[in-house]
Amino acid sequence: MINIRKLESELWESADLLRQGSKLSSQEYCMPVLGLIFLRYAYSRFKYVEAEILKDRPVRNGRVLPVESSDFKQKSAIFLPEKARYDYLLNLPDDADCGKAVNEAMELIEAESTQLKGILPKTYTSFRNDLLKELLRIFNNSALNEINDDILGRIYEYFLNKFASAIASDDGVFFTPKSLVKMIVNIIEPTHGIVLDPACGSGGMFVSSSDFVNAEGINANSVMTFYGQEKVEFNAKLCIMNMAVHGLNAKIKSGDEANSFYHDAHNLEGSCDYVMANPPFNVDKVKAESTQNAGRLPFGLPGVNQKKEVSNANYLWISYFYAYLNDTGRAGFVMAASATDSGNKEREIRKQLIQTGHVDCLMSVANNFFYKVSLPCSLWFFDKGKKEELKDKVLFIDSRNYYTVVDRTLNEWSEWQMKNLNAIVWLYRGEKEKYTKLLQDYRTQIINDCRELDAEFESVSILLNGYGEKLKPLRVQVADTIKNAEDINQLLPLNDMLKKYTTELNESLKALCEYGDGLEKDEAKVFAKSIDESATTWERFKKSVSTRIEEVVSQIKACRTVIKEAKWLTEKFGDGTYTDVLGLCKVATIDEIEEKNWSLTPGAYVGVAPVEEDDENFEERMTEIHKELLTLQAEANQLMDTISANFEELGI
């Protein structure tokens, strides 16, 4: 089985190392590298479809008829002329102009695909020959041949994510963090019809919608039509390549005609089954008259200043998203946190919107969910097909205290945290069966994790050579628990058992190392060899055992995280009955919202939860803070070295 996370990381590290050795900025490097990933995808897809075509290929005069461009069009695939194939580029002679050859390959592909016309990068002659050849080699990984598993799509998204982080300080607005995208998709549940993103960036909403449908065993292209508008042409090119890498068809418009303030570029008002977006926040200087003429304003214009400009476009976007929906459509979008409670004309628009009964859910999101930007935001959800009993209600969720810290500048939701927040929406909608299925998923995941750990515990016990005697009863206890557990609640005590197992592992390792360190050099080597015949020195053996223990402790931590998330969910909602939870969620009626002057700020309804002491979280956070301090110290030292060198150059 391919370790996709490891593959993503290794490919990025290799590619980024080359960038650091060149004179290219992240901005200059981004599009060409993503273009090479596309080229690799096109080749893998070509070989896969070619094999399918050749299965039933006619034979004439003893020869199989060669495949042609028309054969590929019948299978909705791109035919690659020989000079556009990845293997051709890999095997170019040493003295060949690699940049020129890759540019030609991109032009040949565009000639075969109207969707990609003018989209693919052709700046490869700016790369050094050796750099470009090494990049081609990096992406010639055999794991990337697996078309059906969408591995290249994952790689493309991973690189987009990493580039977004690097470019964010400039204009990295093309990428919405994946956990926000997935949350939107999971709550509006796109399954069919017309899907629109009028600020589509690099197309993450479309890809995630496709993943959602594919998980149900349905081909997204057969049930959905994707439409996008993106004013910035660079971003639109990223989007079209992203769609192509995932095998998706989309109608994307870019440039001035795709400025959503002034154009409904696809004529979709009142026609969309699903609308998703992460629009730019707090845009000003939008021409009021042009906006008025462009329509899609069911609640009228927001405030207009003396210059006849809309000074804050947040409520233009909100109005558009609502106006695009058909009679049963759903919308989910990211919005500045301030929009939930803004006053004047915006409050009047919000009042009218709430009174439609189509506001489904509002979710507050913590700081640091965006690259290089710390501001909080909210997720808004509309549903024109709400059940009758929910039409006078809105679900408020405050998730500002519920997330995973990635580093000191970035937070996200883990997969299980997203599922837990999603479960609140299911229960509010009366979809208890989905909640029950989630509990079953938790049970299966925890049991499978513990079974894998059981095998790890056995191998580690051998390495500890008797110094892990205390581990045996704990291992039996874990095995008995998963064997006898009939529901998720019986698995929750595993958290404390696994915590104790981690403690005993570390203590056993310490005892083993102290014993070995106390021996003479030759004795220590013999001792190491008695445990592992491949051990060449005691120090190497000790290092390998320590590394192995770290790996197992990491696996234990991952399993315990799943258990803690299961506990978080079941403590609040038991077997599956929605209830308001102080500080987390509240279902409010329209009358209650009116009492709060039409505010849609979740915190105004859910209240503040009591502070819970959590020793484990405290330990983890202190570890994170320590790592942050070490990082900052290293950065400070590097900065001091630079300053000292500059002073020396100045003769100071």
Automatic annotation (TrEMBL):
It catalyses: a 2'-deoxyadenosine in DNA + S-adenosyl-L-methionine = an N(6)-methyl-2'-deoxyadenosine in DNA + S-adenosyl-L-homocysteine + H(+). Pfam families: HsdM_N, N6_Mtase. Its EC number is 2.1.1.72. Transmembrane segments: none annotated. It is an enzyme of class 2 (transferase). One of its GO terms (biological process) is methylation. GO terms for molecular function: DNA binding; N-methyltransferase activity; site-specific DNA-methyltransferase (adenine-specific) activity. It comes from the Bacteria. Residues 149-428 form the DNA methylase adenine-specific domain. Belongs to the N(4)/N(6)-methyltransferase family. This is site-specific DNA-methyltransferase (adenine-specific). It comes from Alkalithermobacter thermoalcaliphilus JW-YL-7 = DSM 7308.
